[in-house]
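Write out this protein's structure.
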Amino acid sequence: MSYAPSGGAATARQTRFPAWAFYGVLFGILGALSILAWGPIGVSGTYPRFIGEILELVAPSYAGSNEYLQKVGHLFAKGETFVVIGLLVGGFLGARLNREKAPACEMIHPSEKTPARRYRDAFIGGFLIVFGARIAGGCTSGHIISGITQLSVSGFIFAAGVFATGIFTAKTLKGRHQATRA
C-alpha cells in the first residue's frame, strides 16, 4: 500500500507493508527450514499416528500387526506432530485473544443456533476432512505448503484448485445466507 507522507508533499512516496506480510515471510522461512530439517510436512499423518499410539496401549498385538500403522510410524517420529500442537494452541489463543465477535459461524451455519450443534458440525467436518486427506495421501498443508515451498508444479495446481473451490463455496454460502435473511 502506498501513501503520501503526512507533510502533505506528494513528491516522496513511501511503501508500507501491512502487518500480516511479516507473518507470511516468517511462515515461508519456517516452512523451508522445517522441510530441510524433517522433510516435507503435513498434518493429516499425525492423526493415524495418534490412533496408533492409543492402539499400542489398548491392543498392542493389533497395532504391531497393522501395516498402515507401522508405515505411518510413531507420534513424535516427525516434526509435523508439533505443527498440529501449534495449530491447536494457536487456534485456542487466537480465539481467546480476539476482541471482535466474528459473525462467520452464523454465515456458515445459518440454521444452527446453538454452540453445541456448531461444535458437532465442526467436529464432523474436521473428521471428514482428515479422512479424505488420508485417502488422498496428504492434506492441504502437505500438498500446498510443502509443495509450493519446494516449487512443485502439483503443489501450485492443487493450491489453485483449493482456492477456486473455496471462493465458489464462500460465494454460494454467502448467497444462501443472504437468501435466508431476506
